[in-house]
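Help needed: design a sequence for this.
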């Protein structure tokens, strides 16, 4: 059995992180699409690299969204109710 490449390890880490984005986040739907495509397109190396890059951008945006929400309790309450 061959050991996973660094790119495969990175992809699995990314998949785990994308799965943990809160369903309340705007980015959850985007993350779901990238995860699904990553799982189905493992053979296409150029596409895989672009998907990994896109996945990390989505993670960054989700983190920025979460930080903004935590920093603004009034805004968070307005979006809930």
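Sure. Designed sequence:
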């Amino acid at each position: 059995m061959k050991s996973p490449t660094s790119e495969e390890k990175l992809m699995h880490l990314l998949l785990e992180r994308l799965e943990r984005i809160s369903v309340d986040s705007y980015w959850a739907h985007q993350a779901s699409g990238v995860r699904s495509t990553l799982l189905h397109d493992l053979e296409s190396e150029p596409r895989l690299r672009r998907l990994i890059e896109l996945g990390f951008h989505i993670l960054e945006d989700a983190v920025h969204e979460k930080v903004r929400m935590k920093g603004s309790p009034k805004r968070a309450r307005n979006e809930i109710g």
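Confidence is low (pLDDT under 50) at residues 76-81.
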